[in-house]
């Protein structure tokens, strides 16, 4: 099967599973998150400071450039990401990973604030990168943060790696989080990082630190699109992130096949 035919099949799958096209994340929520970011809500700024000088018009335009949809237009109870934008993001991630998978020798940090959807994807990438001769960073594994993070007091939440992927954890549970604190701690620990692959505040903190980053963003992950529009971040893959990992597996498989 040729790459063009395979990509056409992938487009159908993206739309059929509502990973792109008509998505579950509705415009009303995305717009509400945009306003929260503009107010400096730390759950929505992702560790980036672009919100301080942004207007709602700039933000809406930045999101539209990223997902192919204006979140102020159309039915507010529906959501949309243009499949062509998702496919372009997949191609961009694959092309950025290609030299690491071809030549090895890189140092890569993978992290997710959305483990219930994306952990398997990142773990598969970590395995492929490791097998190609790259070093997968596991900095501050099982380290607890010494300051409060949202509703969690100092020492209650920390970093734990699963399948080579950094996650936030509390007690026995891994957390869904938008906060940048865990990535900020890993970066502050020092050491070489050639590439970060992440989402939410895990990606935002890496972008803020000037690290090459591949990010995944749903339509409501506003700060990442604003950073992209301002030239701070290039490789955003726009896709619905509220899914079971099995639904995303064909995306991972296609991305890795294209990269090698």
Automatic annotation (TrEMBL):
<dbReference type="InterPro" id="IPR031423">
    <property type="entry name" value="Phosphatase_SCO2771"/>
</dbReference>
<protein>
    <submittedName>
        <fullName>Histidinol phosphate phosphatase hisN-like protein</fullName>
    </submittedName>
</protein>
<dbReference type="Pfam" id="PF15698">
    <property type="entry name" value="Phosphatase"/>
</dbReference>
């Amino acid at each position: 099967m040729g790459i063009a035919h395979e990509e056409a099949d992938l487009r159908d799958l993206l739309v059929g599973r509502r990973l792109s096209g008509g998505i579950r994340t509705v415009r009303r929520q995305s717009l509400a998150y945009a306003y929260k970011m503009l107010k400096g809500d730390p759950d929505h700024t992702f560790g980036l400071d672009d919100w301080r000088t942004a207007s709602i018009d700039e933000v809406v335009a930045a999101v539209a450039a990223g997902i192919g949809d204006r979140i102020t237009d159309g039915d507010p109870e529906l959501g949309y990401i243009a499949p062509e934008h998702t496919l372009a993001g997949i191609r961009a991630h694959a092309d950025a990973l290609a030299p690491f998978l071809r030549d090895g020798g890189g140092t890569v940090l993978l992290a997710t604030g959305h483990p219930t959807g994306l952990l398997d994807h990142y773990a598969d990438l970590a395995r492929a990168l490791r097998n190609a001769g790259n070093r997968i960073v596991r900095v501050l594994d099982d380290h607890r943060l010494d300051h409060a993070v949202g509703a969690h007091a100092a020492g209650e939440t920390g970093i734990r790696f699963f399948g080579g992927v950094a996650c936030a954890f509390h007690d026995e549970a891994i957390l869904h989080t938008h906060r940048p604190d865990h990535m900020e701690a890993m970066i502050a620990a020092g050491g070489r990082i050639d590439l970060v692959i992440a989402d939410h505040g895990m990606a935002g903190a890496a972008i803020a630190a000037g690290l090459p980053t591949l990010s995944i963003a749903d339509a409501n992950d506003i700060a990442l699109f604003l950073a992209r529009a301002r030239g701070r971040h290039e490789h955003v893959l726009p896709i619905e992130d509220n899914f079971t990992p099995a639904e995303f597996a064909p995306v991972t498989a296609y991305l890795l096949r294209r990269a090698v």
